[in-house]
Request: fold
Amino acid sequence: MFVVSPGRNRSAPFRLRSLLQLGLAVGLSISPVVISTSWAEDAERRSYEVPAGNLGAALTRFASQAGINLSVDPVLMSGRRSGGLSGDYSVDEGFAQLLQGSGLQIQPVGSDAYTLIPAPQRGDTLDMAPMTVIGANEGNAEGARYVGGQVAGRGSQGLLGSRHFMETPFSMTSYTSETVKNQNARTLGDLIAADPSVRATNPAGGRFEQFTIRGFSLFNSDVAFNGLYGIMPTYSIDMEMADRVDIIKGPSQLLNGISPRGAVGGGINLVSKRATDAPLTEFTGSYASDNQIGGAVDVGRRFGQDHQFGLRFNGVKQSGNTEWDHQSVEREMAVLGLDFRGERVRLAADMGHTERDTDAPQERVLVGAAAGVPDADKVHDNYAQAWSKARTEDTFAMLSGEFDLTDSVLVYGAAGARESDHDFLRHNVSILNDAGDFNVQPRDFTRDESVRTVTAGVRNGFNTGSVSHELNLAASYFYMDFTNGGARYATAPSNLYDPLATPAPTTPTRLDNEVYTENRFSGVALADTLGFLDNRLLLTLGARWQRVKVDDWTNGVKGATAYDEEKVSPSAGVLFKLSEQLSLYANYMEGLSQGKIAPSTSVNEDEIFPPFTSRQVEVGAKFDQGTFGVTASVFRIKQPAYETNATTKVFGPNGKRENKGIELSTFGEPIQGFRLLGGLMYIDSELTATVGGISDGNSAPATPEYSVNLGAEWDVPAVSGLTLTARGIHSSSQYLDQQNSQKIDGWERYDLGGRYTFQASDKNVTLRASIENVMDDRSWISAGASDDSAAGLTISTPRTYLLSATIGF
Reply:
């Protein structure tokens, strides 16, 4: 089957949506709400020019021009031709003209989404075949947005192409650019506040962002850009460049290969913006407390016959003080996207540059052996020194293309690169006693990175008797080298509750070793999705061969911890569509991860450990009522556990950890004018085979049992264009160490907001206002990253006011 993804959103402007209410979500998990829905004919007419010829090519061009999603079994196209069309048509009229005499008809499967089936000659059958991406760039998901507009109905799945969530044998949520705008999300860390399976593990005002998915670490370097790893900035990712953000839960190495830091709890893929058929010129002005002022432009145009050439530019500049004293942030971003969409060829290029300067960035708070957990309620001042800083600069680019060899065979490829310079002057915050005392030891830290990556593949759809196939073959190669260096300075005392200003460092007391590291990851993957029972039963079988080669040098001397290892990781998924509204699925996924690297807080800093394997088993169900969706899953993930020994300060493996969990998520519009987005996650995380059995049976550190995101949007009936929003976020208590000797309490955050959309002088205007952490709660929101070296407490962000105004010209 092939799918034509949209070139633009053909439907009238839709209302923007948000967020979940837990009680309703739990109720839906027991007894789904039944809301009738029908697919209404879109009567919008516009001009089309589609030449006569091969039916598949004609449908591809028509769907691209119309901005809709079309999924078709290639076997149905074999030998069929179309007389084309010329003139003004609605979508239904256009299909009728193109399909005249073909024996086929369209069948709506979602908002702006259609499939082709044989014209009925007997009882209706359900045709749900595998899907390959053909047509306009799959990254532009505007025509594939689910009712409510906050999530996309389909998302990018690497090796397997683009698929609807109801046809995917794993858990996945795809957030749209409308969600980014309406949450006033500046970085990826702001956006993930909508997802209960994802948690931030570093302060919002810190040097970098880091997350967990299903309790396992994910760094920014593990975030893919249009399916390629290593292209995105290492420390913070600006959201203005994103058309969509796909979050996959569970190991995803079959889909995209091994990520740079070996994330196993899930994966994140950022999809770049593309020009739509409708010209776009938008300016957004923004304000964030204490005094962050910014402006962003978004310009898109298409040119040439049938709008074949597209250009999309996004630029941002924001600067000013934050909620923390003597802290300021300045960020700049410029990203240009170019694309060409022909009858059988789609090409795209993205290039961007980002800079981010932070004065007095927040640090995680480390808790010493003689200290208890600090009282977050007493932390009111920035404990980072005013002279500390974080300077990052990233330049990146990628090229991608697709070519339809035939109506059922697609060849694709992509290549990308990034150059980065990072300069930090920082200090650890390691609490020595219950009074909150710590020593400030300034440290210069520099890091230069260079990335080159490439992937290529082919997809082929065919039938063997009554069984449909989508065969996927792909190869990938990733190269990154980086150099770390720096210096240390004399220490001075300070206090967490009453920070003391210390002199800016001048003369180093020690120069750090210069460490140069090269990473080379290569892999080949093969997968086949087989369709049985008129494609109501889909079975995906695949495997990826992966090679991980790491070399390092310290002051020019070859390291002893380098390695070169390879492994074949099998994966399998099965999905059965009981009805158009309900799908059941299960999967088994394996993934090879790069070995951990000892942190700066350990005595064996920068030591590299061998790769390790993670394994997941998952069973779930997906319910799509048409305007409202619910997904539920049960999963188990196993992998080795690592820690820094509290006594010896040596970082290394210590046992294994097993995360068993339940996820429930929901999205859409169960009642007209009322939208939900969110869910909950429960995790039982257990340690086994620890050294001496001391921690066996304990909970893994930094893993809350419960994570809940609740929120809603309501269109006020009495005031056209006015929408009120609310959100609640909760995480339960977390342990700090494998011994479970210390823990932080659970925490909650409540957000309120609203937006008003109207026209002024024929200009579309949207005003947005929100308050994050309305109660100004001071809490430790994370005990670090549970499966690696990133221990330390993360403080909540104080009450923050966010304002923005978007004007469309």
